[in-house]
Design a protein that fits this description.
Elements: E1 3-8, H1 23-26, H2 36-48, E2 57-62, H3 71-86, E3 92-97, H4 104-112, E4 115-123, H5 127-132, H6 139-151, E5 155-162, H7 169-181, E6 186-191, E7 194-195, H8 199-205, H9 214-230, E8 235-238, E9 253-255, H10 262-281, E10 291-296, H11 301-305, H12 310-318, E11 323-328, E12 337-339
Parallel strand pairs: 1-2, 2-3, 3-4, 4-5, 5-6, 6-8, 10-11
Antiparallel strand pairs: 7-9, 10-12
Helix pairs in contact: 7-9, 9-10
The chain binds iron/sulfur cluster.
Length: 341
Protein backbone atom coordinates (compact mmCIF):
# COMPACT_ATOMS: atom_id res chain seq x y z
CA UNK A 1 0.00 0.00 0.00
CA UNK A 2 1.27 3.48 -0.78
CA UNK A 3 1.53 6.18 1.85
CA UNK A 4 -1.37 8.50 0.98
CA UNK A 5 -1.48 12.25 1.49
CA UNK A 6 -5.21 13.08 1.16
CA UNK A 7 -6.78 16.34 0.01
CA UNK A 8 -10.57 16.49 0.34
CA UNK A 9 -12.39 18.57 -2.23
CA UNK A 10 -16.04 18.00 -1.17
CA UNK A 11 -18.35 17.96 -4.20
CA UNK A 12 -15.90 20.03 -6.26
CA UNK A 13 -16.66 19.45 -9.90
CA UNK A 14 -20.07 17.93 -9.17
CA UNK A 15 -22.58 19.52 -11.51
CA UNK A 16 -25.49 18.21 -9.43
CA UNK A 17 -26.06 16.39 -6.15
CA UNK A 18 -26.63 12.66 -6.00
CA UNK A 19 -29.64 12.33 -3.69
CA UNK A 20 -27.74 10.62 -0.83
CA UNK A 21 -24.60 12.77 -0.93
CA UNK A 22 -23.43 15.35 1.53
CA UNK A 23 -19.70 15.27 0.93
CA UNK A 24 -19.19 17.96 3.56
CA UNK A 25 -20.28 15.40 6.15
CA UNK A 26 -18.42 12.41 4.73
CA UNK A 27 -15.19 14.41 4.53
CA UNK A 28 -15.66 15.60 8.15
CA UNK A 29 -16.45 19.19 7.21
CA UNK A 30 -12.90 19.70 5.96
CA UNK A 31 -12.73 23.23 4.64
CA UNK A 32 -9.11 23.03 3.54
CA UNK A 33 -8.41 25.68 0.94
CA UNK A 34 -5.82 24.37 -1.48
CA UNK A 35 -3.23 27.01 -2.25
CA UNK A 36 0.44 26.65 -3.26
CA UNK A 37 1.41 27.14 0.37
CA UNK A 38 -1.19 24.97 2.08
CA UNK A 39 -0.55 22.15 -0.40
CA UNK A 40 3.19 22.21 0.25
CA UNK A 41 2.74 22.43 4.03
CA UNK A 42 0.44 19.43 4.15
CA UNK A 43 2.84 17.37 2.06
CA UNK A 44 5.75 18.33 4.29
CA UNK A 45 3.74 17.58 7.46
CA UNK A 46 2.83 14.12 6.19
CA UNK A 47 6.35 13.38 5.02
CA UNK A 48 7.74 14.33 8.43
CA UNK A 49 5.48 11.80 10.16
CA UNK A 50 5.76 9.07 7.53
CA UNK A 51 8.31 6.93 9.43
CA UNK A 52 8.77 4.35 6.69
CA UNK A 53 5.04 3.77 6.14
CA UNK A 54 3.92 2.71 2.65
CA UNK A 55 5.98 1.60 -0.32
CA UNK A 56 5.55 4.88 -2.22
CA UNK A 57 4.11 8.32 -1.53
CA UNK A 58 0.98 9.37 -3.40
CA UNK A 59 -1.28 12.40 -3.26
CA UNK A 60 -5.03 11.70 -3.33
CA UNK A 61 -7.88 14.08 -4.21
CA UNK A 62 -11.04 12.66 -2.63
CA UNK A 63 -14.63 13.77 -2.13
CA UNK A 64 -15.39 15.39 -5.48
CA UNK A 65 -15.47 14.55 -9.19
CA UNK A 66 -11.95 15.19 -10.42
CA UNK A 67 -13.00 14.52 -14.02
CA UNK A 68 -15.62 17.26 -13.83
CA UNK A 69 -13.42 20.03 -12.46
CA UNK A 70 -13.13 22.93 -14.84
CA UNK A 71 -9.91 22.85 -16.83
CA UNK A 72 -8.28 25.74 -14.94
CA UNK A 73 -8.88 24.09 -11.55
CA UNK A 74 -7.69 20.71 -12.78
CA UNK A 75 -4.56 22.22 -14.29
CA UNK A 76 -3.91 24.06 -11.04
CA UNK A 77 -4.16 20.91 -8.90
CA UNK A 78 -2.13 18.86 -11.35
CA UNK A 79 0.47 21.62 -11.50
CA UNK A 80 0.89 21.41 -7.71
CA UNK A 81 1.34 17.66 -7.99
CA UNK A 82 3.84 17.98 -10.86
CA UNK A 83 5.96 20.38 -8.81
CA UNK A 84 6.33 17.68 -6.14
CA UNK A 85 7.18 15.06 -8.75
CA UNK A 86 10.06 17.29 -9.79
CA UNK A 87 11.20 17.59 -6.17
CA UNK A 88 10.80 13.81 -5.85
CA UNK A 89 8.72 14.30 -2.69
CA UNK A 90 5.79 12.30 -4.11
CA UNK A 91 5.60 9.52 -6.64
CA UNK A 92 1.99 9.10 -7.70
CA UNK A 93 -1.59 10.35 -7.73
CA UNK A 94 -5.08 9.02 -6.93
CA UNK A 95 -8.37 10.77 -7.69
CA UNK A 96 -12.11 10.19 -7.18
CA UNK A 97 -14.07 10.30 -10.41
CA UNK A 98 -17.51 9.60 -11.86
CA UNK A 99 -17.82 7.31 -14.90
CA UNK A 100 -18.51 10.35 -17.12
CA UNK A 101 -17.01 12.33 -18.74
CA UNK A 102 -13.79 10.53 -19.60
CA UNK A 103 -12.31 12.34 -22.56
CA UNK A 104 -8.88 11.75 -24.12
CA UNK A 105 -7.48 14.93 -22.66
CA UNK A 106 -8.41 13.95 -19.10
CA UNK A 107 -7.05 10.42 -19.44
CA UNK A 108 -3.80 11.76 -20.89
CA UNK A 109 -3.54 14.09 -17.87
CA UNK A 110 -4.02 11.17 -15.48
CA UNK A 111 -1.33 9.12 -17.20
CA UNK A 112 1.07 12.07 -17.37
CA UNK A 113 0.62 12.64 -13.64
CA UNK A 114 1.41 9.03 -12.73
CA UNK A 115 -2.12 8.20 -11.57
CA UNK A 116 -1.90 4.72 -10.10
CA UNK A 117 -5.59 4.33 -9.23
CA UNK A 118 -8.96 6.04 -9.51
CA UNK A 119 -11.80 5.72 -7.01
CA UNK A 120 -14.67 5.18 -9.44
CA UNK A 121 -18.20 5.87 -8.16
CA UNK A 122 -20.39 3.15 -9.64
CA UNK A 123 -22.91 2.70 -6.76
CA UNK A 124 -25.17 0.33 -8.74
CA UNK A 125 -25.47 -1.17 -12.22
CA UNK A 126 -29.25 -0.96 -12.11
CA UNK A 127 -30.26 1.80 -14.55
CA UNK A 128 -33.58 2.61 -12.91
CA UNK A 129 -31.84 3.06 -9.53
CA UNK A 130 -29.13 5.20 -11.15
CA UNK A 131 -31.91 7.46 -12.48
CA UNK A 132 -33.70 7.51 -9.12
CA UNK A 133 -30.57 8.55 -7.22
CA UNK A 134 -29.72 11.16 -9.90
CA UNK A 135 -26.25 9.92 -10.69
CA UNK A 136 -26.30 11.35 -14.19
CA UNK A 137 -24.83 8.23 -15.81
CA UNK A 138 -26.00 4.75 -16.69
CA UNK A 139 -24.51 1.27 -16.52
CA UNK A 140 -23.16 1.50 -20.10
CA UNK A 141 -21.10 4.52 -19.02
CA UNK A 142 -19.60 2.39 -16.25
CA UNK A 143 -18.63 -0.36 -18.69
CA UNK A 144 -17.10 2.20 -21.04
CA UNK A 145 -15.20 3.86 -18.17
CA UNK A 146 -13.68 0.51 -17.16
CA UNK A 147 -12.54 -0.10 -20.76
CA UNK A 148 -10.95 3.31 -21.12
CA UNK A 149 -9.23 3.32 -17.73
CA UNK A 150 -7.88 -0.18 -18.24
CA UNK A 151 -6.57 0.72 -21.69
CA UNK A 152 -4.81 3.68 -20.09
CA UNK A 153 -3.24 1.30 -17.54
CA UNK A 154 -4.92 2.90 -14.51
CA UNK A 155 -6.13 0.72 -11.65
CA UNK A 156 -9.76 0.96 -10.56
CA UNK A 157 -11.25 0.87 -7.09
CA UNK A 158 -15.00 0.59 -7.74
CA UNK A 159 -17.52 1.93 -5.20
CA UNK A 160 -20.84 0.18 -4.69
CA UNK A 161 -23.72 1.01 -2.36
CA UNK A 162 -26.02 -1.33 -0.49
CA UNK A 163 -29.58 -0.33 0.49
CA UNK A 164 -30.17 2.21 -2.27
CA UNK A 165 -33.80 3.31 -2.81
CA UNK A 166 -35.79 0.61 -4.57
CA UNK A 167 -33.05 -2.01 -4.15
CA UNK A 168 -32.92 -5.07 -1.96
CA UNK A 169 -30.21 -7.68 -1.56
CA UNK A 170 -30.95 -9.32 -4.92
CA UNK A 171 -30.37 -6.11 -6.89
CA UNK A 172 -27.22 -5.26 -4.92
CA UNK A 173 -25.68 -8.70 -5.49
CA UNK A 174 -26.56 -8.52 -9.19
CA UNK A 175 -24.71 -5.17 -9.46
CA UNK A 176 -21.79 -6.66 -7.56
CA UNK A 177 -21.54 -9.57 -10.01
CA UNK A 178 -21.71 -7.23 -12.99
CA UNK A 179 -18.97 -5.02 -11.57
CA UNK A 180 -16.77 -8.01 -10.73
CA UNK A 181 -17.13 -9.21 -14.32
CA UNK A 182 -15.47 -5.92 -15.35
CA UNK A 183 -12.46 -6.92 -13.22
CA UNK A 184 -11.90 -3.98 -10.86
CA UNK A 185 -8.65 -4.03 -8.88
CA UNK A 186 -10.41 -3.20 -5.61
CA UNK A 187 -13.88 -2.62 -4.23
CA UNK A 188 -15.35 -0.31 -1.63
CA UNK A 189 -18.86 -0.95 -0.37
CA UNK A 190 -20.89 1.72 1.41
CA UNK A 191 -24.25 1.22 3.08
CA UNK A 192 -26.74 3.95 2.14
CA UNK A 193 -27.00 6.34 5.08
CA UNK A 194 -29.56 9.12 5.34
CA UNK A 195 -27.46 12.25 5.83
CA UNK A 196 -28.75 15.64 6.88
CA UNK A 197 -29.17 18.12 4.08
CA UNK A 198 -29.76 15.58 1.31
CA UNK A 199 -32.69 14.84 -0.95
CA UNK A 200 -32.73 11.38 0.59
CA UNK A 201 -33.45 12.98 3.97
CA UNK A 202 -36.58 14.56 2.49
CA UNK A 203 -37.72 11.21 1.06
CA UNK A 204 -36.97 9.52 4.38
CA UNK A 205 -38.91 12.11 6.40
CA UNK A 206 -41.90 11.71 4.09
CA UNK A 207 -41.76 7.95 4.53
CA UNK A 208 -40.81 7.39 0.87
CA UNK A 209 -37.49 5.74 1.68
CA UNK A 210 -36.93 3.02 4.22
CA UNK A 211 -33.25 2.40 5.00
CA UNK A 212 -31.88 -1.11 5.26
CA UNK A 213 -31.49 -2.34 8.82
CA UNK A 214 -27.95 -2.84 10.06
CA UNK A 215 -28.12 -6.65 10.38
CA UNK A 216 -29.28 -6.99 6.78
CA UNK A 217 -26.58 -4.59 5.57
CA UNK A 218 -23.90 -6.54 7.48
CA UNK A 219 -25.17 -9.85 6.09
CA UNK A 220 -25.15 -8.58 2.50
CA UNK A 221 -21.73 -6.99 2.81
CA UNK A 222 -20.36 -10.23 4.28
CA UNK A 223 -21.76 -12.13 1.30
CA UNK A 224 -20.33 -9.53 -1.10
CA UNK A 225 -16.91 -9.70 0.60
CA UNK A 226 -16.76 -13.47 0.15
CA UNK A 227 -17.95 -13.32 -3.49
CA UNK A 228 -15.27 -10.71 -4.27
CA UNK A 229 -12.66 -12.73 -2.38
CA UNK A 230 -13.45 -15.80 -4.47
CA UNK A 231 -12.49 -13.95 -7.64
CA UNK A 232 -9.47 -12.30 -6.01
CA UNK A 233 -10.80 -8.74 -5.68
CA UNK A 234 -9.87 -7.20 -2.31
CA UNK A 235 -12.52 -5.11 -0.57
CA UNK A 236 -10.61 -2.10 0.72
CA UNK A 237 -13.36 -0.64 2.87
CA UNK A 238 -16.91 -1.37 3.98
CA UNK A 239 -18.83 1.53 5.53
CA UNK A 240 -18.20 5.23 5.67
CA UNK A 241 -15.05 6.50 7.32
CA UNK A 242 -16.09 7.42 10.88
CA UNK A 243 -15.74 11.11 11.65
CA UNK A 244 -17.00 13.77 14.03
CA UNK A 245 -19.68 14.96 11.57
CA UNK A 246 -21.20 11.48 11.46
CA UNK A 247 -21.01 10.74 15.15
CA UNK A 248 -23.81 11.12 17.65
CA UNK A 249 -22.83 14.60 18.84
CA UNK A 250 -23.51 16.20 15.48
CA UNK A 251 -25.82 13.45 14.35
CA UNK A 252 -25.52 14.01 10.62
CA UNK A 253 -26.38 10.35 10.02
CA UNK A 254 -30.09 10.45 10.78
CA UNK A 255 -31.12 7.09 9.38
CA UNK A 256 -29.72 3.89 7.96
CA UNK A 257 -27.07 1.38 9.03
CA UNK A 258 -24.33 3.77 10.17
CA UNK A 259 -21.81 2.34 12.60
CA UNK A 260 -18.29 3.75 13.12
CA UNK A 261 -16.86 0.23 12.85
CA UNK A 262 -19.20 -1.13 10.20
CA UNK A 263 -16.42 -2.93 8.29
CA UNK A 264 -15.21 -4.63 11.46
CA UNK A 265 -18.77 -5.82 12.18
CA UNK A 266 -18.91 -7.38 8.71
CA UNK A 267 -15.58 -9.15 9.18
CA UNK A 268 -16.73 -10.31 12.58
CA UNK A 269 -19.88 -11.83 11.06
CA UNK A 270 -17.72 -13.65 8.47
CA UNK A 271 -15.56 -15.02 11.30
CA UNK A 272 -18.68 -16.14 13.20
CA UNK A 273 -20.05 -17.99 10.16
CA UNK A 274 -16.68 -19.70 9.63
CA UNK A 275 -16.47 -20.84 13.26
CA UNK A 276 -20.03 -22.11 13.11
CA UNK A 277 -19.26 -24.11 9.95
CA UNK A 278 -16.15 -25.57 11.61
CA UNK A 279 -18.15 -26.62 14.68
CA UNK A 280 -20.93 -28.08 12.54
CA UNK A 281 -18.34 -30.14 10.67
CA UNK A 282 -16.75 -31.36 13.86
CA UNK A 283 -18.76 -34.26 15.25
CA UNK A 284 -16.94 -34.20 18.57
CA UNK A 285 -17.93 -30.60 19.16
CA UNK A 286 -21.56 -31.45 18.69
CA UNK A 287 -21.36 -33.68 21.71
CA UNK A 288 -21.51 -30.60 23.96
CA UNK A 289 -19.81 -29.86 27.27
CA UNK A 290 -16.48 -29.36 25.46
CA UNK A 291 -13.99 -26.52 25.41
CA UNK A 292 -12.87 -25.63 21.91
CA UNK A 293 -9.94 -23.52 20.68
CA UNK A 294 -9.80 -21.54 17.46
CA UNK A 295 -6.40 -20.43 16.14
CA UNK A 296 -6.33 -17.21 14.13
CA UNK A 297 -3.83 -14.68 12.86
CA UNK A 298 -2.91 -12.12 15.60
CA UNK A 299 -4.44 -9.36 13.44
CA UNK A 300 -7.88 -10.97 13.49
CA UNK A 301 -8.27 -11.93 17.16
CA UNK A 302 -10.59 -9.07 18.03
CA UNK A 303 -12.95 -9.52 15.07
CA UNK A 304 -13.05 -13.28 15.72
CA UNK A 305 -14.09 -12.73 19.33
CA UNK A 306 -16.74 -10.26 18.15
CA UNK A 307 -17.91 -7.06 19.78
CA UNK A 308 -17.78 -7.70 23.57
CA UNK A 309 -17.00 -11.38 22.82
CA UNK A 310 -20.44 -11.68 21.21
CA UNK A 311 -19.29 -14.32 18.68
CA UNK A 312 -17.89 -16.55 21.40
CA UNK A 313 -20.94 -16.16 23.63
CA UNK A 314 -23.35 -16.99 20.79
CA UNK A 315 -21.35 -20.07 19.77
CA UNK A 316 -21.06 -21.26 23.37
CA UNK A 317 -24.84 -21.14 23.73
CA UNK A 318 -25.63 -22.56 20.32
CA UNK A 319 -23.30 -25.57 20.65
CA UNK A 320 -23.70 -25.95 24.43
CA UNK A 321 -19.93 -25.58 24.84
CA UNK A 322 -18.17 -25.52 28.16
CA UNK A 323 -15.89 -22.83 26.78
CA UNK A 324 -14.37 -21.41 23.58
CA UNK A 325 -10.95 -19.81 23.24
CA UNK A 326 -9.41 -17.76 20.48
CA UNK A 327 -5.62 -18.04 20.29
CA UNK A 328 -3.34 -15.81 18.21
CA UNK A 329 -1.05 -17.77 15.93
CA UNK A 330 1.17 -15.92 13.42
CA UNK A 331 1.37 -19.07 11.29
CA UNK A 332 -2.34 -18.78 10.41
CA UNK A 333 -3.19 -16.59 7.41
CA UNK A 334 -5.44 -13.54 7.82
CA UNK A 335 -9.00 -14.67 6.94
CA UNK A 336 -8.26 -18.24 8.04
CA UNK A 337 -9.56 -19.89 11.21
CA UNK A 338 -8.39 -23.24 12.45
CA UNK A 339 -10.36 -25.34 14.93
CA UNK A 340 -7.80 -27.12 17.10
CA UNK A 341 -8.21 -30.85 17.02
S1 LIG B 1 -20.61 12.61 -7.76
FE1 LIG B 1 -19.84 11.91 -5.77
S2 LIG B 1 -19.25 13.77 -4.63
FE2 LIG B 1 -20.53 14.41 -6.39
S3 LIG B 1 -22.61 14.55 -5.55
FE3 LIG B 1 -22.40 12.47 -6.42
S4 LIG B 1 -21.67 11.18 -4.71
FE4 LIG B 1 -21.38 13.35 -4.11
Amino acid sequence: MPYLIPFYIPQEGCTHSCIYCNANVTTDGESFQITDQSFDSRINEYLETRKGKGNRVEVAFYGGSFNQLNKDKRDYYLGLVARHFNKKSIEGLRVSIRPVPLDEDFLADLVKHKTSLVELGVQTMNDSTLRAIKRGHDSKDVIYAFERLKTAGIKISAHLMVGLPGEEGKEFLESLRQVLSLKPDFLRIHPTIVLKGTELEVLYNKGHYKPMDIDEAIKLCAEAYLIADEVGVPVLRMGLQANSCLDEAQCSAIGGPYHPSFGELVLSKIAFDKMMALLNDSKQCNEGERTVTFRVNPRTVSRTLGNNRSNIEKLTKLFKLKGANVVADPKIKVDEILLEA
